[in-house]
Amino acid sequence: MFFIPEWPAPEGVKALCTNRQGGGSLAPFDGFNLATHVGDHLEQVLVNRQTLFHAAKLPSQPVWLDQKHTTRAIQLPYSSPHVSLDGIPISQESISERSQSSQKDNFKDIQTIRSGQLEVADASWTEAAGLVSVVMTADCLPILITNQSGTLVSAIHAGWKGLAEGIISQTLASFPQTPRNQPEQLIAWIGPTISAEHFEVGEEVREQFVAKDFDNAQFFQAKQTVDRQGDYLNDCSVKYLADLPSLAQLELQKKGVRNITLSGLCTYALADQFYSYRRSGKTGRIASLIWLE
User: Fold this and answer.
1) At residue 35, does pLDDT exceed 50?
2) Would you give the distance in Å from CA 141 to the centre of its chain?
3) Whole-prediction pTM value?
């Protein structure tokens, strides 16, 4: 169902990452799918989410996002008329009410989900205790961040597009610019994602990363292919194996973040543990969550 990241987070910072084991979703989402937008039965997804809430003893329902591969990061609580998936407006005053309401097994959030009342963003952060930042992935990078003081937490969804366009930098820039949130004070965890061995991309993807930073070129390995006659063709200008975790790690390092832990888990290779869009196409999503006690 979930595991606890092994990283040097300070006391009071809690985090977890789910896998596909457990849950009641049926193929091709079989297991513990937490996404409502992939075609799985909505009621079953909500059961899975409620199971996670109780099993992980979360302080409140996670604040799910409408992830669109943007570079937008929002602060929680978010001052918007929009609501989270439990149907309760997000405000500082409502945190305790959210926690109390979360103890009830009900599905009043079905209408909220169907009405699309979710914030379009690919990262969130908070300095408020009891609010759970979360991102969903199935090959993309889940990145969790906190500081050494244990006063801020953030969850980032970084696909190749968001990574190339600067979701990491934009998220870090959105943090309050105080001494305890300076890059050298931050701690990052890069969760399960597709490994370079299984992530083939075209020249256009490589060009976007290299145009951003030439040092990114080292994380694109030209792939050899075979034509119909059995001759090897080195399609250097066409296909590459891209190392997303290393690209993310390099950007974090260049922003001054020194304390970075990589999970080393490949979503494509570990089919019994994780969903992979590249491997399966239509599939479920895992979630990476972080909060302050």
Assistant:
1) yes
2) 6
3) 0.86
